[in-house]
């Protein structure tokens, strides 16, 4: 059986959105390398069903990735004041891309480069920081790029994924800069 | 008979290797016997840059001898024995006023021709003396001695002199006052190419095929040689040349073997010495012909009536595509015959020249698959392939200069606001891409030859784009760039590549890497 991360993420997305506020709060508070119990409640059976066995070498790595993703979903802010889901039917793939969201939130280029130039535990930490920043600025974001960034770490396609994020970022900053110039000259 | 040495008709001076790699020595008639009988062998001591000269010389000599020996021109069987070939060669020399001595390297009677050495009256008229068949006697101009060394044959055998003489006398260009070039090239700084189809890599197959083609070409009267017959001057080294008179081109046999230099070999102890002199003009008066001498292996540009001159670019895919087209009239060897087999080869060779320099030995052999060969046998089929080749060359140019180069410059310049397109930083990478295209062009062209035009163009465009993208991404890994600008430069460059790819090569939008995970 081949592990399909995309399927697991889709199910995780639904579960986090459908989870009680307490569980989501536990995820939001989670430290990068220390998963709370709530995380295992959401993911243990998912991973078992997806074929990643508990004693397999990939299980722990995948759990680290999923913890960051679950936290990002929990923080993403698509809830009403009572914690109910605002947009259950929102397709994650149509949500704003990470690079664009970061540019919208005026995330500095230096911090973007730190995010793109790291790997391993440092990458997970920088993703958490970026997600916190976006949430603080009230900017929506999709998790697809986050999953791609974490999933491609130390793999052949890691540069391609980072280029995509950079492209979205620079395209937005350039477009904003052009709009500003047009507004000023008018 | 005068004293003579190193007689090619009688002495086994030529080294050959058979299919098993075993070496032996043969006479010139012996070589012709074995080749015409279909024996798989090759010349063991021939240098690469001498291949063209030796092949054309041998084919022309054989064809002239057969023509003069009243061999039926349509008869494909050339299998004569040593004695018959010897007779044919001697008769060929006699027809030009010579004797059997014309095939000896050294003939002490200067009034008699020696091999590739015209008769003369006074040896002292030849001022330069050489003890090696290289350096000034070589068609390779190796003044800086960086690559192929000048004095690379320390103890030359007679055979080395044979090949050097043949190459010098039949392929030299203009090398300054007194050293005029051959008639079979366009101008003194041109080149004498060999472009033709053949049946096989095997040398004896190429020899037999080309001799057959040469004989066939004699069946019709050439407009360049309207009054020629078997007795027209052919072995020009046999006839006296005082260095002043030039023979009119149209008075010669169509397959004439010319000499461009006044040279004479003498023997000193066991070594050979070459006495070389200058001339006041070329051996053949053909300046107006622009190299268009009806040479069987030389394409002629129809519009200008001028022979092909090759440059250091060699037989690139661009050049060969151009030569396939209707702008060029092929020589007799460049016309495909049904007897060339189901999968003939196209052979293109040249020692490219220039003013006082060599621009490299270039050789290319293309396998022509059966489906392409069937098209080439029909003029309209060949035109169709040539037209597609030309269109593909244009697409390649778009890919290199409108798609790849701007994207690469964007990256190398760190993703600037405005790309400096005059920057030459990308030139070596564009050249590398062009070389890659060159390696695959004809394979892909021939694979797609029976695919409809739109589909074939789409496939070619996609291949070009993928190669450009791969090379761009390879540069991302290898080129130095500050970490601060790395992703900005890369993302902009990739975006530019895809944008240009959509516009110029009809490529789809960029797929995001995240969508492929």
Structural write-up:
The complex is a heterodimer of chains A (186) and B (517). Chain A is an all-alpha fold and 186 residues long. Chain A has 9 helices and no strands. Chain A has helices at 5-18, 21-29, 37-50, 57-75, 98-104, 109-117, 120-136, 144-151, 158-185. The longest helix of chain A has 28 residues, at 158-185. Chain A is globular and about 60 Å long. With 517 residues, chain B is α+β, with helices and mostly antiparallel strands. Helices cover 37% and strands 14% of the residues of chain B. Chain B has helices at 28-36, 51-68, 82-95, 158-171, 203-217, 317-324, 370-376, 379-412, 427-447, 453-478, 483-505; strands at 4-7, 14-18, 23-26, 41-43, 104-107, 128-130, 194-198, 247-248, 262-268, 271-277, 284-285, 300-301, 306-307, 328-329, 345-354, 357-367. Chain B has a 3-stranded antiparallel sheet with strand order 3-2-4. In chain B, strands 6-10-9 form a 3-stranded antiparallel sheet, with no helix packed on it. A 3-stranded antiparallel sheet of chain B has the order 7-15-16, covered by helices on one side. In chain B, helix 2 packs across helix 5 (203-217), helix 8 runs antiparallel to helix 9 and helix 8 packs antiparallel against helix 11 (483-505). The N and C termini of chain B lie far apart (88 Å).
> Spans of chain B of 5+ residues with little confidence (pLDDT < 50)?
none
The SS-based structural class of chain B is: alpha+beta
Structural class of the secondary structure composition of chain A? mainly alpha
What is the C-alpha radius of gyration of chain B, as a whole number of Å? Answer: 27 Å
In the sheet with the most strands of chain B, the strands line up as 3-2-4
Count of discrete alpha- or pi-helical segments spanning 4 or more residues of chain A: 9
Give the uncertain stretches of chain A in residue-range form: 79-89
